[in-house]
Structures are given as structure tokens and as C-alpha cells.
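Much of what follows relies on a compact textual record of a protein's fold. An example makes this concrete, so a full record is given next.
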Amino acid sequence: MTRKLLTLFIIFFICGSPSFAQNFLKKYELEIGGSAILAGKKYNGDFDKTLNFYSEIRRNFTRLPMDIGFHFGKGTMYREWENPFTTNDYHYLSYLVISNYYFSDSKKVSPFIGIGMGITHLKIDWSYIENSQSIPHGTQKDDSFNFMMRGGVEIYRFLRISTSYKFMKRKYSNYEISIGLTLGGWR
């Protein structure tokens, strides 16, 4: 009985105070999106293009054209080494503290730049290539400090397109292009 009364009270409170909800949503926003890792041929290897997923929660500052928040990313990078004929699948999980600066407070188009710092956990599955077939050989785990620089544009305050470069240990660094949908944060 008390659960029903509490639930009913919460529903009436939320429905009865739209100004509270509007003010709350002005401060916070959630972004969910996908990114493609596009790292060119370097370090004697070649990354394949892959699609990865991320989410961010940010708090907007009302008097400053910036925000601060957290970035969570999960995905896979496939990398084929030329020598000694091995492939590596990098499965990663990244946690970053981020901040963005907006050059314009326009409701249509707002260009921004941002930085982020955190840690990335990696699980590396590697295998040999023999006669055009991949033969599983082992698994290894690694952690890397992650420093991200990015720039992009926010369109109509709900669509974000950005590019970023993530500096990690030399063999894990990568370049990404991402697109995400933003909920809340109506400054």
C-alpha cells in the first residue's frame, strides 16, 4: 500500500511541476551514439574500420558556454599485422572525464572543441594467419591511460557529429568519427 502511495505521489509531483523538469533538463544531457575508428596504416599494421558505441552524460553550465561530464565507450578494433602474419582483435572499454567548449550558443549549429582523460581497459585476442585462415592463439589484457582531443558540431541541440583522436599506448591510439543523439540539455 505504501509503495502505491509513494508511486502516486511521485507521478503527481512530476506531472504537477513541469517547470522543475524543464530546469532539470536544462542542466543535464545524455548522448548515445556510435563511432567509427579510422586509423591509417602505421606501426607496420593496418586497422580495419569498425563501429563502436558510446554514451555520455554531461552537465551544462548556464553562464558559461561549456559542459563537463563522463564518457563511456565500448567496442572492438581489428588490426592485421604484416609481420609476423598475426591479427589482433582489441576489445576495449573506456571511461573518460570530458569537457566541451561551445563557440556559439545558436540553437541551429554550435561548433565545439573538447578534451577528455581517463582509462581504457583492453582485451586482446590474437591469432596467426596461415593459408588465409586465422588460427586463434592467445588472449592478453592491458590497461592504458587515455587522453582524447575532439572537435565537432551540435545541430539543433540534439544531433552531434564529431571527430576525435585518442592518445593511448602507442599501438592503441586511434582516430574516430562519431555521431550521436542528445537528450535534454536545452540551454
